[in-house]
Amino acid sequence: MSWFEGFAGAGDPGAGRSRDRRPGRGRRRPTGGRREERRRPAPSRPPGARPEGGPPTPADHPRYVWDRGVRLLAEAGRCPRCGVPQRRCAFARAAGLLRWLLERAGPGEHHLVCSVLLPDATLSASLGVEPAASSGGRAYGEEEAAVFCAVLAAGLVSGASGGLVLRTAEEPPRQSVRGWRLTAGRLLPLSEAQVFAAYCTDPTSGEPLPPEPDVDYRASPRPPTGACPGRREEATPG
Q1: Which portions of the chain have biased composition (kind: Pro residues) (predicted)?
Q2: CA–CA dist 157, 77 (Å, integer)
Q3: What are residue 126's phi and psi, to 5 degrees?
Q4: In sequence order, what are the residues at sequence separation of 6 or more whose Cβ sits closer than 8 angstroms to the Cβ of residue 17?
Q5: Residues sharing a CB contact under 8 Å with residue 230, sequence separation 6 or more, in sequence order
Q6: Using CA atoms, how far apart are residues 62 and 59, in angstroms rounded to an integer?
Q7: Which residues of 155-173 are buried (b: 16+ CB within 10 A; e: fewer)?
């Protein structure tokens, strides 16, 4: 398995030359202002989830991804540093990384994909982010964001391989792509050459693919570690 299979072809519209998919048009939440800075507990279930005992859910359905991610976090127990259940600690850390990504995404419409390669399945979630005309910030679907953070949190806790892609629609028709590799519970930035290799290599045959037209493959900034800072009294000197 190639090192970049954790994110190339895992839901990003350009990976593997799959057909472009527009982000969901559900209820949007602006990212600007004080309200978004408050930490909220991880929701127990995404809105609109089917009742228990319903028909089987496909593995790529958001409900399945949410349930599997939350179950993995619950099975992880408590964070060894702060003592808080991982379903809260890891979810909060994932939400912090998402905020960091959006702060550095720049102008334009953004499409993020996070994938985690578990031993028996691949968890993948996407998030569409658009400019919020009313507030001057950004808007995205709350349900999409919850599932996205659950997948990222599962990767932070499990230490499984995976990746994260940020595709930005800039001045039409230009787009840019940046990526991070998820390994050992950390997001590691990819260089321009690594992002190019991930998108211009067939993941099955290993043969080179032509670059996408009007797409710039860019180096990615180094994110925070995403590690738990520990208890407040441990982080405060004296």
Answers
A1: 43-59
A2: 10
A3: -125, 160
A4: 209, 212
A5: 81, 82
A6: 8
A7: bbbbebbbbbbbbbeeeee
Query: What single-letter amino acid sits at 181?
Result: R
Strands 175-183 and 162-169: antiparallel
**Cβ neighbours of residue 20 closer than 8 Å, sequence gap 6 or more:** 13, 14
Distance from C-alpha of 200 to C-alpha of 8, rounded to nearest angstrom: 9
For the segment 102-151, what is each residue's pLDDT rounded down to a tens digit? Answer: 999 988 999 999 999 999 889 999 999 998 877 778 899 999 999 999 99
Can you tell me the distance from the alpha carbon of 88 to that of 74, in angstroms, rounded to the nearest whole number?
9
User: 82-86 contacts: CB < 8 A, separation 24 or more?
Assistant: 82/228, 82/229, 82/230, 82/231, 83/231, 86/153, 86/157
d(Cα 160, Cα 22) in Å, to the nearest integer?
Answer: 28
Q: What is the pTM of this model?
A: 0.75
Structural tokens at position 218: 């860019």
Instruction: Look up residue 170 and give its DSSP letter.
Output: -
Residue (of 110, 238, 232) closest to 167 by Cα position? 110
